[in-house]
Amino acid sequence: MQRDPLQAPLPFDAPVASPEPGNERELVRVGDRLDHHVLAFARERVGRTFHLDELRAFVVERAGAVAPESAGRILRSLRARRALSYSLVNRARSEYRVTWAARELPPTTTAPALASRTARERAALLRKLEAIRRAHHRLCDRQVAILAALDRLEDREELEGAPARSEVA
Q1: In sequence order, what DSSP letters do the residues of 86-151 get, joined into one string?
Q2: Average of pLDDT values for 10-35?
């Protein structure tokens, strides 16, 4: 019995990078228009190789004029969203192989959700920064305490007539 490649388990071995930083809103805007065309292209080519120019031509034929890099950006975005998987066959020729494609598009992340995620990430980073700042202050306090103890020790040695550490060294 042959398995349907569209129903195969997700073949994601390596972590997938998220879309370019700061580009999420643009991807959502363009993706609303192009996502289903790029996914349809990938579903037609599961197990086969393709060139990025073929993807661009497919998308232009169905969606009209698009920026030259839009189809490739949407392809990477769909991979990051786990809607498809592909492997690079030949970088110089921009040749890829589709290894898996979903039947339907996953829900899109909207701009407000991205903004709230960014706010959560910023809050987490601020908490980490505050923890580092507190640890730094504790270390500085320890350093001051050690220096004060050394000064007291030198004062005691001077009173007892022993040479101070600074004179010995």
Answers
A1: EEEEETTTTEEEEEEE-SSPPPPPPHHHHHHHHHHHHHHHHHHHHHHHHHHHHHHHHHHHHHHHHH
A2: 55
